[in-house]
Each structure stands twice: as structure tokens, then as C-alpha cells.
Amino acid sequence: MALQFSRLILAVALVRAVGASSEVGAGVSGHGQTAPRYARVFSFGDSLTDTGNALHVAAGPSSRPPYGETFFRRPTGRASDGRLVIDFIGISSAV
Fold first, then answer.
1. Which among 53, 85, 92, 93 could disulfide-bond with 19, CB atoms 3.0 to 4.6 Å apart, if both were Cys?
2. How far apart, in whole angstroms, are the C-alpha atoms of residue 41 and residue 87?
3. Which residues form the signal peptide (predicted)?
4. 74 near 68, Cβ under 8 Å?
């Protein structure tokens, strides 16, 4: 349990550091162009970020209600009913 919490803290710190560096670099560059921002977060799942994402299996339980109804309003293929830690990290980092 402590190891998972340590991993979470490390992941959050890393995302915050990357977000802070992108905020610094998001200003106007020397040539009058804005620097690109990150568009996606890739998380190579563990129990804190892996949602299943098995919608390609049409007969799977996550392709039917109630999965996803609370936040997404439709079945999403996720093995959860809402957002996870990685979703909140992406939102707080403006990704």
C-alpha cells in the first residue's frame, strides 16, 4: 500500500513538474510564435490509472449500463463509473 502511494505521489509530482515547465514555455517565443502545449497524457496503467478500456469486446459488461453513466452518461468500456486519478491530473494540467 505504501509503495502504491509513493508511486502516486511520484506521478503527481512528475505531472506537476511537466505542467509547470509547459506553462513557462507556453509564452511567446523569440519569433512571435507560441510554444506548443501537450495535447495528451499517456499512462501505462497500474491500479490507479487503468480503467480497462475494453469497449471493443461488445459482449463485455463494461459496454452496457451502468458503466460510465455517472460522468460520461453512456457506457464507455471503462471498468469504472467515472473518472480516475489520471483524469483529474490531466484536467489540472490543462491537457
1. 93
2. 9
3. 1-20
4. yes
Q: Which three cell numbers stand for residue 23?
A: 506553462
Query: Residue 48 belongs to what H/E stretch?
Result: none
> pLDDT by residue (tens digit) across 34-89?
766 778 878 776 766 766 665 555 666 767 777 767 777 777 767 776 777 888 88
Q: Is the pLDDT of residue 92 over 80?
A: yes
Q: Hey, what's the cell of 18?
A: 511537466
How far is it, in rounded angstroms, from Cα 32 to Cα 82? 41
CA 26, CA 43: separation in Å to the nearest integer? 23
> Is residue 89 helix, strand or coil?
helix
Q: Taking the CA atoms of the chain, what radius of gyration do you get in angstroms? A: 17
